[in-house]
Known about the structure:
alpha+beta; Peroxidase, domain 1; 4-stranded mixed sheet; 62% helix; CF(1); ion transport
Amino acid sequence: MAELTTIARPYAKAAFLFAKENNGLAEWEQMLDLAATVAQDATVRAYLDQPELDRAQQAEAFIQVCGDELSEGARNFIAQLAANKRLNLLPTIRALFHELLAADQRITDVELIAAFELEDAETEKLVAALKERLGRDVQVSTSVDESLIGGVLVRAGDTVIDGSVRGRLSRLAEQLNS
């Protein structure tokens, strides 16, 4: 995985810089989402893996599947990826592009995992606290994991805040066993 990220990073940076220069960050994010989804489709992958297709034909087929959703710049980007046998990197490029966009806009993606569905007021209170602690705007996604028993597990990039009952019980058990 680290190797794919290393290979994909220059492409993501190039796409990001091009999009930023042309005031099209949101548009490029949408186009990369579409392209990554197409690249992950098993039928598309099987078609593109045919040995009788050259790289230009692969690019043209990929662009046709995406339809009119791609700008001229994105079509050129896809053609360049195909020419370098890198179409399979599109999901990684999309993720890296999103990270660059979030860093540029000072936004952090945060995942809130709770033992039960959070009410809007609780979510807003957590978001306000996280904004203050992280010093950035926060985009939140929530999910439910009943095995937490109670409380919330917060994931923001490399930062994990375990405020769950399960986490507290685990830490207590560690202390008792040491």
